[in-house]
Amino acid sequence: MKKITLLMNVVFNIHTLQDTKCDNPHFELTKEIKYGSCVKCIYKCIRCKFTSPRVNLYDEIKTLNPRPNPGELTRMFASALQETPMGIKRGRFLMAAGLNIPPPTKRTVMKHSNVVANEIKELNDNDMKKNLETVKEVNRIRGAWLKGKGLDVTCPDGHAGTCTANVKPATPLSEYLMGKEIGLQVDRQNVLIKYAVTDGDGRGAEGINDALKVLHPLWKVERQADPIHLGRLQSIPLIAGAVIGSIIGFVIVLAIIVCICTTCNKRELFVQPIQTVHTLHRVYNVQAMSR
Predict the structure, then answer these.
(1) Tens digits of residue pLDDT in 43-93
(2) Which of 51, 111, 140, 267 places its Cα 20 to 30 Å from the Cα of 36?
(3) How many CA atoms lie within 13 A of 285 on its CB side?
(4) Annotated domain spans of the chain
(5) How many CA atoms are closer than 13 Å to the CA of 29, on its beta-carbon side?
């Protein structure tokens, strides 16, 4: 609607600038030119001989090619097809049957799709380059940490001046003190922490909670378990129960076998224990099923 209003204003202004004596113009659409998914219109005044130039009902995409600039709608349609499993044939059918819009020709969509595909490839390449540099930087930092080499660290003013370190060389690393320092720094910025994700035996959340409670006595920091430790913690009881049950049954069977072996004679040394193992194995399975 906005484009139609702009088109009529352009046509009226051109008609006014013409050297014609037409005080009450009446415009009529005489020709509609299809350009991909877009339309160009030509209007004519039925009360004089004025005919407007071709006016675009679409926005153009500025290019360096000598050919006419492509329409924005056609280029957007080709770009949208790149992100869907449907092809050009189904896309044109959807535009015609579903939206009641005259679709562009197959050749036009193919031409725009080739241009869009190259641009999308270029964008993906640039994005992959940025991600690759990020991965390299992370691997460089992690590699120095994993290999135990560390990174070069220098004091702001060297060792000649006052050292800015807030931890003494012999001070042990404490998660509680680290969390307390984080809580104090966050509190200076007027920020309150509600949840802190740590492992099960960490005291970082406790340190943050104690630091924030100095100025906010009613505030409480809740510790949340990270997914890795939480999953391992939940799987331990299941594994422990299965292992303990099998170990108890094996120990009982082994103890009975040893007792039998020490009391039987040499002829029954290898026959009777095996039969006893099979009998105890059936009894143990029946008891386990009854549970």
Answers:
(1) 888 878 788 877 777 777 777 777 777 777 777 778 777 777 777 788 877
(2) 51
(3) 6
(4) 1-58, 66-152, 175-228, 257-291
(5) 10
Nearest of 38, 100, 95 to residue 69 by alpha carbon: 38
| Residue count of the chain | 291
SS3 240: helix
174: exposed, middle or buried (C-beta count within 10 Å: 0-12, 13-18, 19+)? middle
Does residue 273 register a pLDDT over 50? no
- Per-residue pLDDT tens for 183-221? 888 888 888 888 888 877 778 888 888 988 888 888 888
**Sorting pLDDT into bands at 50, 70 and 90, what band is 282?**
low
Q: Write the CB contacts of 181 (distance below 8 Å, at least 6 apart in sequence).
A: 166, 207, 211
Within 10 angstroms of residue 196's Cβ, the number of other Cβ atoms is: 19
Q: What is the mean pLDDT of residues 124-153?
A: 78
Q: Is 198 helix (H, G, I), strand (E, B) or coil?
A: strand
Spatial CB neighbours of 225, under 8 Å, sequence gap ≥ 6: 197, 198, 199, 200, 233
Backbone angles phi, psi at 115, to 5 degrees: -65, -45
Distance of CA 192 to the CA centre of its chain: 27
- Average pLDDT over the chain reads 73
Q: What is the pTM (predicted TM-score) of this model? A: 0.36
CA separation (Å) from 247 to 17, 102, 222, 244, 280? Answer: 102, 76, 39, 5, 15
Distance CA 289, CA 291 (A): 5
Structure tokens at 111: 């031409």
Half-sphere exposure of 103 (CA within 13 A, CB side): 19
